């Protein structure tokens, strides 16, 4: 039986899947991992972990399905990240992760001024510089670790690093490149050399491809490490959220992919470029597509944090207690800015807030407040997307948070929007399996992973949430000054003032 291998590196785990060419899931495997947070605002990971986990997962899946013949491979990963390496692909330091890493804000300000201001960068790059942009992170390393930077010659993201390990081809997909602001020109769809040289001096830029294009084949070295057959095609990967959108056919104009994960991510496909200082304008994963995107810095990360605080409590038990807490969490509101916030406020110094606590509140109330707080953040982002010209006709929910119905129902009730729940919510690895399959035998995305059901909002609950949402949106402006003061204290205590 012919099969394809899809693999994805996420923030908290790596996942792999073997499927048939028609999308039947044969086997899955997962490897949990942790990011490193060496200082306040720093979030990083050793790229070698990505390759080790791919090799482990590939061997596990092949051992589970010894009768299959793997004929194509696709990989994706979190991003935009900056993994600096030597010319041979040897990492010179841990990879700096996407917008949850906020270390380069001084470089954001400096580059914005040097390149002619936010409007000029927005016009060419599709987004203003923020903690999400890859460009300033190169300069942070150059400014703070000059000896390390002097050794760097190339850069990778998780997907491109794994493609390099499998094929020895130095590539990057256009979508990922479009989040390397200000290195990439979203109009000409090429690297913009003047800004690239200023933002990432002396770094060789990879050759660009669209996600799903075949860029090489598994080498003898790749075969020896993974067990995947030598000579089979490897397709260009992309950032995990975009692969996840592909996995559920959420790349048509009017679609909004809503990804429930460690962080929350939004991708709205539009018919022409949308420019906004609050959101991210990018090219799509596939040719001739455009997106307006956003992301929250935390979502599932907060529920995981609460679980640890509660002595590694069982998620199912906490979820049931949150259900019993009821709408409004018995008078609690949570701002989910526990790692700063990305869109739409773009404030790395925002901080989490839990308002209304009394001695009568339970852990179920706190857990409910976390689910409702992230749902409020979803509504805030949806309203921001529509305010700048995004058009949302269909919301497709993906990710691990869609398992069970409480969180997704709360999001629909808070936003007043129905959500399509697909048949498979395995995630980005399944999207890369689709692209890998299409390299052999094209299959329409809507046939690969058809919708399973529609989740409708409760009109009465939505009306009740409207009042809570007004309170939610008032909290950040009223507490921003205090949040920033506390963030400064936290950095000083960490030695990073």
From TrEMBL:
Leader sequence segment: none
Kinase among keywords: yes
Name of a matching Pfam family: FGGY_N
Segments passing through the bilayer: none
Gene3D superfamilies in the cross-refs: 3.30.420.40
InterPro entries membership: ATPase_NBD, Carb_kinase_FGGY, Carb_kinase_FGGY_CS, FGGY_C, FGGY_Carb_Kinase, FGGY_N
GO biological process terms on file: D-xylose metabolic process
CDD domains, per database record: ASKHA_NBD_FGGY_RrXK-like
Keyword Kinase set for record: yes
Keyword tags: Carbohydrate metabolism, Kinase, Transferase, Xylose metabolism
Domain Carbohydrate kinase FGGY C-terminal: residue ranges: 257-439
Organism domain of life: Bacteria
A GO term for molecular function: phosphotransferase activity, alcohol group as acceptor
Ranges where the Carbohydrate kinase FGGY N-terminal domain occurs: 5-245
Family: Belongs to the FGGY kinase family.
Protein name: Xylulokinase
């Amino acid at each position: 039986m012919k099969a394809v291998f899809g693999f994805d590196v996420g923030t908290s785990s790596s996942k792999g899947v073997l499927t048939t060419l028609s999308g039947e899931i044969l086997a899955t495997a997962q490897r949990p991992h942790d990011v490193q947070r060496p200082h306040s605002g720093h979030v990083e990971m050793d790229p070698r972990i990505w390759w080790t986990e791919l090799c482990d997962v590939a061997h596990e899946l092949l051992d589970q399905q010894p009768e299959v013949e793997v004929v194509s491979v696709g990989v994706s990963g979190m991003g935009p990240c900056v993994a600096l390496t030597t010319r041979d692909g040897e990492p010179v330091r841990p990879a700096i992760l996407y917008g949850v890493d906020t270390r380069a804000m001084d470089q954001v300000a400096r580059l914005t001024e040097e390149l002619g201001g936010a409007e000029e960068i927005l016009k060419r790059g599709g987004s203003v510089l923020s903690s999400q942009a890859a460009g300033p992170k190169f300069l942070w390393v150059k400014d703070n670790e000059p000896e390390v930077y002097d050794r760097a010659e190339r850069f990778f993201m998780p997907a491109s690093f794994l493609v390099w390990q499998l094929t020895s081809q130095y590539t990057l997909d256009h979508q990922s490149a479009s989040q390397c602001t200000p290195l990439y020109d979203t109009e000409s769809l090429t690297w913009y050399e003047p800004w690239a040289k200023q933002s990432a001096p002396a770094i060789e830029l990879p050759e660009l491809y669209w996600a799903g294009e075949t860029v090489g084949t598994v080498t003898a070295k790749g075969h020896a490490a993974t067990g995947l057959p030598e000579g089979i095609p490897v397709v260009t990967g992309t950032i995990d959220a975009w692969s996840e959108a592909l996995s559920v056919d959420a790349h048509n104009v009017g679609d909004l992919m809503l990804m429930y994960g460690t962080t929350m991510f939004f991708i709205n496909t539009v018919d022409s470029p949308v420019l906004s200082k609050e959101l991210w304008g990018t090219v799509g994963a596939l040719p001739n597509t455009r997106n307006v995107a956003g992301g929250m810095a935390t979502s599932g990360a907060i529920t995981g944090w609460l679980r640890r605080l509660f002595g590694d409590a069982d998620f199912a038990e906490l979820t049931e207690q949150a259900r019993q807490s009821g709408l409004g969490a018995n008078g609690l509101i949570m701002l989910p800015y526990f790692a700063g916030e990305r869109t739409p406020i773009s404030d790395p110094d925002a901080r989490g807030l839990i308002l209304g606590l009394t001695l009568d509140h339970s852990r179920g109330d706190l857990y409910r407040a976390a689910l409702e707080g992230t749902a409020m953040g979803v509504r805030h982002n949806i309203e921001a997307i529509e305010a700048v010209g995004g058009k949302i006709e269909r919301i497709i929910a993906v990710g691990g948070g869609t398992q069970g119905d409480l969180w997704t129902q709360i999001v629909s009730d808070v936003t007043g929007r129905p959500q399509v729940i697909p048949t498979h919510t395995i995630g980005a690895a399944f999207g890369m399996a689709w692209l890998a399959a299409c390299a052999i035998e094209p299959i329409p995305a809507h046939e690969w992973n058809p919708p399973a059901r529609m989740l409708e909002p409760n009109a009465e609950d939505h009306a009740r949430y409207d009042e809570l949402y007004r309170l939610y949106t008032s909290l950040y402006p009223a507490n921003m000054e205090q949040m920033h003061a506390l963030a400064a204290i936290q950095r000083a205590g960490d030695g990073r003032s």
